[in-house]
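Quick note —
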Amino acid sequence: FKFENILQAKKIVSTMSLDQKIGQMLIPSAGLLVPDPEHAKYSSNMSNDELIKEFGLDEIKKYHIGALLVNDMPFGANDPSPYMWKKIAKLAIDQYSGPKGTELLVGTDEVHGNQHIAGMPLFPQNIGLGATHNPELVGEIAQATAQGSLNVDFNWIYAPTVAVASDYRWGRTYESFSQNPFIVESMSRSFVDGAQDIQDHYLTGVLGNVKHFIADGKTDEGLDEGNASVIDFNKLWQIDGAGYRGAIQANIGSMM
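Predicted structure written out below.
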């Protein structure tokens, strides 16, 4: 990060109201905004105002919401096309009322491609990518994933997962590149490089988000989202922090 970016961020924050600061810290699921989720339907014949009202997108402006999770929307799967998602994302972005110099983050889980939209390419889970021992390929996959997101106006992906799986009883072992921290570090760095595609200090791809939490792959008895017993914090960072190191080296823009 460049020093002038930090100064710019501080300047923006200094101009924000308390309501705006609170709104910037909220990341509601898009489905939570919908007033009547049981009956909400999308139609290409609906006007922008009708769609905004139908899906509660005016809440973004009202509460100064800074980010949106679009993993789920109650469309009844009546139109899961890229056109529909792009329309909703564009309307959501237009409702953004945050401070000048910022924009709405439209985020989605994309650990192996944009699996929420029909027709988008999907890729092997991380365990398969790690088995290739090919970080360049992982970078290309990340770039393709990012482009698929940008095509529908999603600008933030919750990826890569950088867990170092150390207990096969953990039900999400497939989300780990490897048990080998060096492989995880290398793959993480390549994925972030490909997804964010930073040119002259600017993102030309999407904002990445490294996840989920350090040591999520070494929980006691492999319990998902359970506790991880840590005795040596230096060893924790050396092994379980490997993916975070790789992501930081690639200038990751956000972390869970």
